[in-house]
Amino acid sequence: MKKIVTVSREFGSGGREIGKRLADALGFNYVDSEIIQAVAEQTKLDENYLRDKLEQGISNYPVTFGRTLSQVKSISNSAMLIAKQHKIIRDIAAKSDCVIVGRGADVALADLKPYKIFVYADMQSKIARIRSRAQTDEILTDKEIERKIKRIDGARRSTHDLYSPRVWGDKAGYNICINTTDIDVKSIIKPLSEIIVEYFKQER
User: Fold this and answer.
1) Which of 140, 144, 129 has the alpha carbon at shortest distance from 9?
2) Could you tell me the CATH number of the domain that includes residue 181?
3) Residue 204, domain member (yes or no)
4) Rounded to whole angstroms, how far apart are CA atoms 138 and 92?
5) Is residue 46 within 8 Å of 155, Cβ to Cβ?
6) In this model, does residue 77 exceed pLDDT 80?
7) What's 139's DSSP letter?
8) What is the model's pTM?
9) What is the pLDDT of residue 135?
10) Does the residue 75 lie in any domain?
11) CA distance linking residue 192 with residue 198, whole number of Å
């Protein structure tokens, strides 16, 4: 069985950076955008459209409650895309030791006992991180960034909770939760990678 690390994260918390650095430290394959690319290739849909669609998540309310037929169809399409995404994640995880960022990998691979990380931070820290990495032509106010964070995290939460008995972000559902507020992400990679190495020794 391959060694798998999944990184779930709040938007703007630095989870992607942690995933990349961990993959380098462990010598694992880093998996992120390849998942969307594979879904796009299989469905013949535009990558940007897919990314936006999957970011919207799926509501955990019954589709028969207060929904128009077009909304029900949209939810059905989203569920199909997420099911396809989960299958692709499992196919990727079967090939090599890997670190997978986001995409509900912790849920899709739950039976394979991955090392599950959840990354979070306070709102101001997330706003600052997003602002520092924004495109030069993307000018948003703090309030606009905060709304974007809440929208994306809300979608991640609703989709995760629809497919998992665990609540998104609940510490009981992860091996470790990391608060990146006021810390240098680079400083935690060495001790974290050592913990992960020991985890897989014990699992085997």
Assistant:
1) 129
2) 3.40.50.300
3) no
4) 33
5) no
6) no
7) -
8) 0.84
9) 67
10) yes
11) 10
Domain count, the chain: 1
Residue 26: name the closest of 203, 197, 202 by CA: 197
**Residue range(s) defining the domain that contains residue 173:** 4-198
In a domain, 186, yes or no: yes
Q: What's the CA gap between 109 and 114, in Å, rounded?
A: 7
Q: Mean pLDDT across the stretch 124-148?
A: 86
Q: Long-range CB contacts (< 8 A, 24+ apart) of 191-196?
A: 192/18, 192/22, 192/117, 193/22, 193/25, 193/26, 196/5, 196/22, 196/26, 196/115
In 118-185, alpha helices (H)? 123-132, 142-163
pLDDT of the residue at 58: 54
Instruction: Please state, as a whole number, how many other Cβ atoms lie within 10 Å of the Cβ of residue 52.
Output: 10
In a domain, 101, yes or no: yes
Q: Is 105 helix (H, G, I), strand (E, B) or coil?
A: helix
pLDDT, mean of residues 183-189: 94
Cβ proximity of 102 and 15 under 8 Å: yes
| Amino acid found at 179 | N
Q: How many CB atoms lie within 10 A of CB 168?
A: 21
